[in-house]
Amino acid sequence: MRGWKEAGIISEAQCNTLSSLVRKERFSLFLEINALLYLGVLSLVAGLAWTFSTHFQKLGDVFILAVLSAMFTGCLYYCFTRPPGLVLDYVLYLACLVLSVELGYIEFRFEWLKDAWHNYLLFSSVVFFALAYRFDNRFVLSLALSTLAGWFGVKASRFGFMTSDQLRVSALVYSLVVIAAGAFMYQREIKKHFLDTYLHIAANVAFIALVSGVDRRNGLLSLTALIVAAAASVVMGTRFRKFAFVVYGIVFGYVGISIQVLQTISHFSTILTYIVVTGSGVILLVVFLAQRFGRQE
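The structure corresponding to this sequence follows.
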């Protein structure tokens, strides 16, 4: 291992990792296990939603609503009566997903709100925000912001914003609102560590909106705005030591430029060569920057 390191084949961090494996030392799998557990909760709720929507005539509305209400109430009871911990995070996430399924089932079966069904999204978002701040859970906060984005999009369409350009503008406005809300909470010193979550959601929504406009009639305008946003993301991410935003700027900027370039290429072999060469270059750049960030931190 040391020989590879001295020859420059692997970095210091890679050498330490490989050495630990050779010596059979313990290493953390927390992130991997955490992701699998959250995926397990999501799969469980998805299974419940499919079962209830498919077999509701056999099971009956009363039974289904009773089960969902009992699960939601039981999860909340557990969260409010137990000290903070890893299990509580999963139970809280389960409660939020069960509430979403229950509200969706109520509208699916009874159509109480009919054309105003989007208010379920707003209600869910408010509940998720309250639970996220009460239990200091950034994952639930992400769920709240995503649900709010859904409500924002539906509401924008109700105001006549039906074209892709109008929806794109509404997405950018949503991103600005989220950034402003996160900055407001940060300045008021209310869960200051939540700011990153606000910025991540806003950045992804804004970049996706800009990328979606690159191949439209105003493609050059959208591409220019995308490049400016990507450059700002890279610069600010580097300055404040937020590597994820550096990646956002590089990847989304590359995707937007590639869309514009590939529209001018007609030969498949040329397209394939462009994707392989430039894609490999972007991957190497990200890996190189990741190593630099790791060494500096």
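The mean pLDDT is 83.
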